[in-house]
Design a protein that fits this description.
The protein has helices at 2-33, 78-96, 99-102, 113-138, 143-164, 167-202, 209-234, 239-242, 247-269, 279-295, 315-329, 354-359, 361-368, 384-402; strands at 44-52, 55-62. The chain is mainly alpha-helical. It has a two-stranded antiparallel sheet. The two termini are 46 Å apart.
Length: 404
C-alpha cells in the first residue's frame, strides 16, 4: 500500500507540476512578447496575436486592471497549490516517515526522527519568512541587490542543512524550501493582490498599481526558480550530485545555471536575438560542478590503482570486501531483509553471496565509494577504510575485465 500511495502521489505531483510550470512559463512568454499599439483599449499595456491548434488568439494585457470588471475571470492558482500539497505529502511519506534512512546521518548528528522533522519544517518556514522580508525591503531598491541577497540566503541554508542532515536529505530540504517559496508567492502575495484589485473594481475604485508591481516581481522569481527546483527534485536519483561533501556548493551553481537558461528563453520571447553566449558560462559551471562533486566524494585510503595484470582475484581482497558488504549492506539487500518493515530488497538487489556482489560490483562502487549515497544515512557505519576495501575489489575486477 505504501508503494501504491507513493506512486499515486508522484503521478499527481508530476501532473500538477506540469500544469503549474506550463501556465507559468506561458504567461511569462506572453508578457515578454506583448507589443504596443496606438489602437489598444484604454489602460491596456500591450497585445499579442498568437496561433495554436488551428485558431488565432488576440490577447490584451492591462497593466493594473481594465476600467470595468469582466463578467468572468480565470484564476491560475490551483495548479500551484496542488503541486505543493502533493509534494509535501511525498516529503512526509518518504523523507519524514523514513527520516532515519533519508534525512539523518548518524555520523553528523544522531537526531531522533521527530527532531529531524521539526528542524526540516522550521527551515521551510524560516526560508519563506526571510525571503519574503528581503523582497519587501528590496522592492524599491536595486534588483541586483535583491537577487544577491536571495542567492546568499539559499547558499547559507544549503551549507547549514548539509552539516545537519544526510547529503540526500539536505539536498531535498533546499528543493522543498525553494518550492515552498514559489507556492507561497502565489498563495500569500500574488493571489491576495489580485483579489484586492478585483475588490477595488467592484467598488468602482481605481486599483493600487503596487499590487501588479509586486505580483510581477514574485512571478519573475518563480520563473527563474523553476528549473533549479526541478533539477534538485530529480537529483535524488543521481548520487554524484547530492552525495558528496560539497554538494551544498552545487546548489547555488544550479541556481545560476537555471537562471541563465531561463534568461535565454525570456530574451528570446521578446523577439530580440537570444544570448547564445550563455552556453559558455553554463559549460564552465557544469565543469565546476563535476569538479566539486569529485572533490567531495569519500576520502579513502590509498589503493593500488595501477595494479599489474592479474588473472584471478586475490582471496584476501575478495574476502575482506565480501565480509564488509555482507555485514554492512545485506541487512537490507537480502531475500529477507532484517530492516524493520522492509519486505523486499531495495530495487531487488541482493548482496548475500559472492555471485551477488560480483554481479553488482559497479553499482556497489558508485553508491558507496564514488559517493556517500549508501548506506542511507550511513546507518550501518560504513567507514572510509572499509569503502577503500570495496574500491580495491572493484578496481581489481575492472583490471581483470579490461585485460580479459
Amino acid at each position: 500500500m505504501n508503494e501504491w500511495l507513493e506512486l499515486i502521489l508522484r503521478w499527481f505531483h508530476v501532473i500538477a507540476g506540469i500544469a503549474w510550470i506550463g501556465s507559468s512559463f506561458y504567461f511569462i512568454a506572453l508578457d515578454l512578447s506583448l507589443k504596443q499599439n496606438k489602437n489598444l483599449p484604454p489602460k491596456s499595456y500591450g497585445e499579442a496575436w498568437q496561433v495554436h491548434g488551428g485558431g488565432f488568439y488576440h490577447l490584451v494585457k492591462y497593466l493594473v486592471a481594465p476600467s470595468k470588471l469582466p463578467s468572468e475571470l480565470t484564476w491560475f492558482k490551483w495548479e500551484a497549490y496542488a503541486t505543493w500539497v502533493s509534494g509535501f505529502a511525498l516529503l512526509a511519506l518518504i523523507y519524514y516517515a523514513g527520516a532515519e534512512l533519508y534525512m539523518i546521518d548518524i555520523i553528523k548528528y544522531d537526531f531522533e526522527k521527530y527532531e529531524a522533522v521539526i528542524i526540516s519544517i522550521l527551515g521551510i518556514i524560516f526560508g519563506w519568512l526571510v525571503y519574503d522580508m528581503i523582497c519587501r525591503i528590496s522592492l524599491k531598491t536595486n534588483v541586483y541587490t535583491l537577487i544577491l541577497s536571495i542567492f546568499i540566503l539559499i547558499t547559507i541554508m544549503s551549507w547549514i542543512y548539509s552539516e545537519l542532515f544526510s547529503y540526500r536529505g539536505a539536498f531535498m530540504q533546499i528543493g522543498t524550501v525553494l518550492g515552498t517559496i514559489m507556492v507561497a508567492n502565489v498563495l500569500m502575495v500574488i493571489i491576495p493582490g489580485q483579489k484586492k484589485v478585483v475588490a477595488s473594481l467592484i467598488k468602482n475604485e481605481t486599483p493600487d498599481a503596487k499590487y501588479g508591481m509586486v505580483a510581477k516581481q514574485r512571478s519573475l522569481h518563480n520563473n527563474y526558480l523553476t528549473l533549479p527546483v526541478i533539477f534538485i527534485m530529480i537529483s535524488n536519483h543521481y548520487p554524484i550530485i547530492y552525495a558528496t561533501k560539497y554538494s551544498w556548493l552545487i546548489i547555488p551553481i544550479i541556481l545560476i545555471i537555471g537562471a541563465l537558461i531561463r534568461h535565454f528563453f525570456n530574451v528570446k520571447h521578446t523577439g530580440i536575438k537570444p544570448p547564445y553566449w550563455i552556453i559558455f558560462p553554463i559549460i564552465i559551471l557544469l565543469s565546476l560542478s563535476m569538479f566539486i562533486s569529485n572533490l567531495g566524494k569519500p576520502k579513502l585510503t590509498k589503493t593500488n590503482q595501477n595494479a599489474h595484470i592479474i588473472k584471478i582475484i586475490p582471496e584476501p581482497i575478495l574476502t575482506n570486501a565480501q565480509e564488509i558488504i555482507i555485514s554492512k549492506c545485506s541487512m537490507c539487500h537480502a531475500k529477507e531483509p532484517l530492516w524493520d518493515n522492509m519486505h523486499s530488497a531495495p530495487k531487488q538487489v541482493m548482496l548475500e553471496t559472492t555471485e551477488d556482489i560480483l554481479m553488482n560490483i559497479e553499482n556497489i562502487y558508485s553508491q558507496s565509494v564514488a559517493s556517500f549515497a549508501m548506506p542511507p544515512g550511513n546507518v550501518s557505519f560504513l567507514e572510509n577504510h572499509e569503502r577503500a576495501q570495496i574500491e580495491e575489489l572493484y578496481l581489481t575486477i575492472l583490471n581483470l575485465t579490461k585485460n580479459k
